[in-house]
Each structure stands twice: as C-alpha cells, then as structure tokens.
Amino acid sequence: MKNTILIADDDANVLSSLQFLLEEEGYQVIPCQNQKQIAIEQARHSVDLIISDMNFTLDTTSGTEGLQLVEHLHQQEPQLPIIVMTGWATIDLAVASLKIGANDFIQKPWSDERLLTSIKTQLDRSSAERRANKYQQQNRLLMRENHPVNSGSIVAHSPVMKQLLNTLADLAKSNMNILLTGDNGTGKSMLAQHIHDLSQRHDAPFVSVNMGAISENLFESEMFGHVKGAFTDAKESRIGRFEMAESGTLFLDELANIPLSQQAKLLRVLEEHQFEAVGSSKTRQCDVRIISATNADLNSLIEQQLFRQDLYYRLNTIELRVPSLVERQADILPLADYFLDCFSKKYHRAKPALSSDAEAQLLHYHWPGNIRELSHLLERALFLSRHDIIEPDQLHLPAKNFGNRKPLANRELLTNKEPLDNQEANNPTNSFNGYNQHLTSEELTLEQIEQQVLKDRLNAHHGNVTETARSLGLSRSGYYRRINKYELE
C-alpha cells in the first residue's frame, strides 16, 4: 500500500515540483496551499507524513505560522511525522520547530536526495513505532491465560473431532468468516487459534476479544480505537482491536453479548471493510478475517429481535458446531493424561497416574463444564494426590452429574451392547424417583444410559424443559441436540 504524504506550501511551483518528485518515487501526494485546506484534507484522508512550509500569508520570514501549525498538528497526532521546509532558515527556527514536534528541518532549495532520505527515515521510524505500540497494547489487553486448556495442542482421537479438524484445515485456506457454536468450555477459542495458525494469515496477529467483557459505552473505543481528547478520559490515542488484527484474524468470543445498539457498527465494518476511530473523521481501511464463537441460540435471539439477522449472515459464511466432551468419549482419557502432563511440568511435580476406577469415573461423568472443567479438576487432583496414583475420591466429582448412579469400575462403558427393546425402554414402571434401576447395571452403553436419563429426568420435572436441562447441567440448546440425536419426542 502506498504511503500518503501531505505537502503544504503557498507557492504553486513548489507544490508542483514536490508532487512530481514524490509521485515518481511511488508516494500518494495531497497538495495544500493554506492551513484551512490542510485541516480539510487531513480530516478526509489517513496521512502518513506531512511536509510543510514555515511561512504562508501572515509574513514571509519569521516562521511563526509554521511553528503554530507544527504545534497544532503534533498535538492532534503525536505519532505523525512532520518535516518542515523554509527558504529563511536559521538555527533558532530549526531548534524551535524540532522542540514543538517537527521531526526534521530542511532548507530551500532542497536536495532531492536529502529530502527523499529524510522521508524514508521518518516513515520507517513511524511504522516501527506503530507496530511496537500495537503489539504492546495487544499484549497488555489480550494476554492469554497461561493455562493448558488455552495453549495446548489439540487432542483428537474421537471420530467427531477428527472430522471437525479435517473440515477446519480445509476452511483455514480460505478467507471466509467462520462461526463456531457449542457449549461453554468446549475449546472454541483454541480452535479459532488453530484456524489462524493454518491460514495464510498466520504471520499476522491473532487478536481475541471477549464481547461479553466490553461495556456498551466503550464498545466503539475498544473495537475501533480513539484519538487523544475524544472523550474525558482519552488522555492518549489508542488503537482498537480491528487495527491490532490488521492483515490477521479477529476472534469475537461470546458473540451473542454484543449490544444490539452496537451491532450495526460492527456490520458496517464487515460490509465495507472500513471504520473510524472515536473522535476522528478519518476513514481507515481494514483487512481482517473474522472468526466468532457463541454458546447461544442465535436464531432464537433473532426471533426475539436481540440479534441482527444481517449481521448473523455476515458472520456465518460457514457455521460449525464444536462437540461437547461427552460426545468425545475417546478423547476424555487422552485429554486427562495431557493435562496431568502439563500441570506436572508447570508445578514441577511428579506426574501421577489415574487408577482404573478414577478413569471409569471420568468416563461416566456428564461434564457440564466440558474441557475447561476437566482441566481444572485435574489441576486440583494433582495437588490432592499424596501418592503416584489418583483415586476417585481425589477427583471430587459432583454426584448430581452422575445421575445418582454408581460409577463404572472398568471401561465397559465404551463397549457395544445390544440396545434395550422398545417395550423395556419405554416402560414407565421401571422408573423410581425419576431414575431407572437399570442405570446401575454394567450391561448398558453410554447412549442407552443417556437416553434413559433424558426420559426420566423430563418425567421427574413434569415436562419442564428448562428445569430438566438445568438439572442435567445442560443449556437448552444442548438438551435439544441430545433429544434430536436420539430421536426422542
């Protein structure tokens, strides 16, 4: 992209000469003959450097107008490089201009080589400062938690995760926006990072922002940045998340939490690929890929007029659901081993093993908190274990998410058993207190157990779906997915 240079001089011949020289060097040039025109053009365009004469109409030699202009420009945009030029150069004038914000001082008639060298030097310095400022803000605001659930490699032994990763690998090569759905704690943020790492944008920044953590009145400032003085507490200019993610990927987590009043502003950026910082009239172009994630039912929110349908269509060029942990049975024990390995290294402790009973308990649990819950549980178990084996009592799994049944003592949970016949499966006389007596049997598969729990729990709550889902530690959407999976009415 060409750098834009604004040149200001009341002499039309000087403007013409400078414009010809700079355009030959590949710069985009904006010529101005007075200070009013400078203000207008600066508001219209994003300028990378200014070359300004020191004298306009007030007099011809003092440089007072030029000093006032430099001071004003520097106060507006401290990072904007300014080169001043004058035919009445003095040491005092040069020193005064540099003190109030100019970056270089060149005497007329100028040397083309000297001027071009100065321009390149100032543009390189400004670019380096912007990059440093961007990464400094990115690291300060978006520092990711040093936790294995966020930063580890992806464990995928289950068919459903292998299929998802294959799909993501193909999609990563494109620039289409991707919407990841699924329950909390399923690893959506890690998968978003994975997509970025596999994409052609992998050398550019990956910027993650939790939309639920941004208040409505700070939305524009956080996303688009602000200039100094834009509002009471704006003591310095600040770049927003879109600018941080330039040429890279912007991950919008907790998408459904974007206030309705701000959704139109986000839609405009996605449609037109441009935005303005708060307090600035300059339109900035942006080249950012959007990956978003939510555990909410966006279609339901659209029906309730809490989420814009046009924004939804912009974000879900492709929509993929991330499976919950109970749908990834083959991944539970490998994930547990991975987390124990990570936490053992982190805390410099010997890595314990899981007993067969502990493994069976992990496999038998419902995991309402998904992978995040598993990681925190094993971090705690590492410290509770006094030996080299972790037993079930050191896992402290809540009994309510076992469905009040005895955990299996072996891995027969994963074996293929014959399903119950329809008469037995639907016989209400087999239930007591909302749970089936067969749940203590080792003859049932996980799917059979889950089907029976869904039926009995709904019966126990007299058909109330919300209470049933809550008692199972599921969201409503998670509950309905399981109903559809087993073709239950």
Biggest β-sheet, characterized? 5 strands, parallel
The DSSP helix count reads: 20
Counting helices, strands and paired strands, the structural category is alpha/beta
Helicity level? 40-55%
**Strand ordering within the main sheet:** 2-1-3-4-5
Protein name: DNA-binding NtrC family response regulator
GO molecular function, one term: sequence-specific DNA binding
Organism: Pleionea mediterranea
Keywords: ATP-binding, DNA-binding, Nucleotide-binding, Phosphoprotein, Transcription, Transcription regulation
Give an overview of the whole structure.
45% of the residues lie in helices and 13% in strands. A five-stranded parallel β-sheet has the order 2-1-3-4-5, sandwiched between helices. β15 and β16 form a beta hairpin. It is elongated, with a radius of gyration of 31 Å.
